[in-house]
Write a structure and sequence with these properties.
alpha/beta; 32% helix; four-stranded mixed β-sheet; 8 strands; two-stranded antiparallel sheet
């Protein structure tokens, strides 16, 4: 993993993995995973910006995923797009809302799915930066 500076105030982590497809061929998969701890109006645009910058730099397709670690049940950004004079650009990305997984915490901790590891780690980091955040829900889930 490496950190590379950028001019938007953040520095995305990057991990490169070779991943064999079911047909046995290898593929270079670029995933952009962003963990967002609080609602932010510019977050969808940042997702778009990081996606196209990664694509441009490596000349490969990029899969972007947002992990929303905030406490607002209604904040669920899933795209950024714009249109100007018939020209359109945008990015639609899947999201995982940590609040949605509070009742399934034991299932996540027991899972061998890489997604579960990312979610539990992101949640642990978020909770350590906000004392008391989500602790009640997790205790109820156990």
């Amino acid at each position: 993993m490496s950190r590379e500076p950028n001019d938007t105030g953040g520095a995305p982590d990057r991990a490169d993995y070779d991943s064999p497809w079911k047909n046995g061929q290898e593929a270079w998969v670029l995933m952009h995973i962003e963990v967002q701890g609080q609602p932010e109006a510019l977050f969808p645009r940042r997702m778009y910006t990081y996606n196209y910058r990664i694509c441009d730099r490596f000349d490969r397709q990029v899969a972007s995923l947002a992990i929303l670690a905030d406490d607002s049940p209604s904040w669920r950004p899933d795209h950024f797009s714009y249109e100007l004079w018939g020209s359109k650009a945008g990015l639609w990305f899947p999201t995982v809302k940590l609040l949605d997984w509070n009742s399934r915490w034991e299932e996540l901790e027991a899972s061998t799915n890489p997604f579960a590891s990312v979610v539990t780690h992101a949640s642990a980091v978020q909770c350590s930066s906000r004392p008391g955040a989500n602790q009640g829900a997790r205790k109820q889930a156990k």
